[in-house]
Amino acid sequence: MPQEYDNLINWKQFYDRYVREVAVSGDELKGQCPLHPDSDPSFTANIKTGLFKCYGCDASGNPQVFLQQYHNISASEAIKMLNEEAGIKEKEKKQERRKYTVDDYAAAKKLPADFLKELKLSNNKTGITIPYMDESGAVMSTRQRYGDTGKGPRFLWTRGSKVALYGLWKMPQIREAGAVVLVEGESDCHTLWFHGFQALGVPGATVFQPEWVSFLKGLAVYVFQESDTGGKTFVRKISEALCRAPQDQRPGSAYLVKLIDHKDPSELHCSSSENFKSHWEQAIKNAPALDYKEAAGTAENVIPDAPVQLKQPPGWQFNQHGIFMNDEKTGIPTCISRIPIIICQRLRSLETGQEKIEVAFRRDEAWHRLAVLRSTLFQAKSITTLSDYGITVTSENARFLVKFLAALEAENIDILERAECVSQLGWHGKQFVPSYNTNLVIDVEPSTQKWLDGYHEEGTMDDWINSVSGCRQNDVFRFMLAASFAAPLLRLLNHRIFILHNWGKTRIGKTAGLKAALSVWGEPESLLANFYATKVGLERLAGFFRDLPLGIDEKQVVSGNGKGDFIDSLMYMISLGSGKVRGAKQGGLQSTSYWRTIAITTGEEPLTNYSSHSGMFSRVLEIYGAPFSSEAEAQKLHLLKSYGQAGPLFIKNVIEVGIPALTERFDWFLSFLEKHYRSGSERRLLQTHLSAIAIVATADSFVSEWVFGKDPEAAKGRALDMTLEIGELIVDTNEADSTERAYESILDWIISNKEQFKDEARAPRYGDYRSELNCYLIFPTILKDYLERQGFSYKGVIQGLYEKGHLKTNCERGFGYMAQVDYHTARFIAVKMEEDSGNSGNKKGS
Q1: Rounded CA gap, 290 and 236, in Å?
Q2: What is the pTM of this model?
Q3: In this predicted model, what pLDDT tens digit does every residue of 601-618 receive, in sequence order?
């Protein structure tokens, strides 16, 4: 059975017609066997190769065998059915070729047979022989011409023949006349010679050789262009040869000859022999000069609906029916691909500097584009991987397809466009992909395409504004929405990455709020990720989104069972803005992803806990509260029909106002927040949090102006109110301090384990309580074990407790306290209870 069936037939659909209770897992199809009564799924088939096996009746083989057994038909009938399935036409029986003679040819061309015989045309077994003679009249090649009946080519070169110009033995007369007409084929030469005009024939539209230009030196050359696509190719190939020839070898002048109502001179003669001379002389008189430099760069309109129009490479042809290789000896085109494959443009990656070739192929009545590394496209051993995308390349035709594509690029190197491509979204210079992009090509892996497809517009801007404007009265919702707009500002204002986490009980609209934030840029459902993903997966997603917000829903799906450390490391990785450095299989390093985004997350629990390190607290804005006043209001935004318009509009205005205006607005908000939380409020917020709130407020104020049409001062004022409300919801400096959190954790632990500090305590005893010191003396090993189980660094916590005055010490070195318990002197960590703790610290040995 031919291997090409695998590329032409969907074996799953094939077996679906026959097999009952079908189930597919990977490449394996299972079901009830149609070849025997079967109640169990004993039939299996590979949907890539079509091979089947039944473990009930023991039948096995390829699809041809299956059809033979199922329909009880012959092998040839089964193959016929497979050909119909694959769209392969049955080969017609070769007809006997009817004998074709010089007299037949003379009658067809309306030329005297004796005239043609004087040109040494003669009959052979089934056709006529046309000799190609050199200037001396010696035969150097012969070409066979056959009639239109039967199958097979109409022209064949005799073995050992060399392709040459037809009519070279007439060069003395041509030079004497000082002019010559170049036509395609022998019959037009015969017609022109019969009427007394000098001509040379080129045996094919694409075969004119640069060395033939020497025969045209100093002559007035009239290049005849037929009205079809081949005529354009004919003119272009001659023009290319003229351009490449040395100046002193070129013709004296060149002209382009066309006939208005006839395909070629032979047809004109056949329709009106008596008027041929006057018509032809008029055509010569009206012939414009041939600008062969311009004509050499002209591509033929070979496939009208192709993405680009290209020149046919020497020795090859392509059209809507596929790609064909011309046999140098016989001139017969051989099909190497049943679908056309062309080169669209050259792509250079801005991120890696690698060059790719964008190819287009026509299949299922549509053009498909694919960006391929040069190392893949131009090697026979690797180009076969493109068969996975629908290109009909196999191990058999790979070598020829590589040669064709190389020749196609070489022939069109001067007209192929060169573009820059990116595989990451966001800012690339002054362009923003995909929202505000003029000439960058987005080149992504198929696995990433669905995320890219999510960035599109649907519905209207007015509908989107009507859907979200009322919800902006809620400051939690307003802040989430503004954070989505703020993500592209981080790179422009050189701001660090941060995470906005909205948490609270279920059914308060957290997911709806996140979807509304993502609807700024595209379809929310398509752009929404969740915590149920690998660290590498989210790393690559962040690298792809880059300057766009990263929306992650449902933190609780990985809560518990030791997942806290995973969340901590995941969020910390996102906040760092770069992926992990990894080695490549072939040596060296893989390209590392970089991003600068705002991650907007939701969940029923906070991201941070007692044991989260201070760096995590400084990178996360955690907001507890509902983004909506009611569940019904949230439900409306779950069903958004319009999205994707606001983000591109925002980017357009960002580019127009420029970075100085953005910086001025950001500095204004940050200055206000710093003054308020340093002197005007009892709360003290981390500087990183103030900066994050300020950049979201900056975005919110501009969004109010550009998207919602508000007055600038009113927009700033409302954004300011939002910042004060949000500032009350996030952690202050004490809550974010890891030492203070560790201290609170230790006090909670002591209170819940008071019995372990008494003389009668059950083993293990944790230490002792000294009322005169208002301290709990804790064995270092016990405290170290507790802190490490909670995720704290023991040494770091002890150092911090000492510096903040939460410890009493009486040792010359270290932070210990020597005391006697149960008649034994031991070293303890003396932790002060809250009412006696301060920030002044204690000197060692006190």
Answers
A1: 11
A2: 0.59
A3: 998 887 776 555 556 677
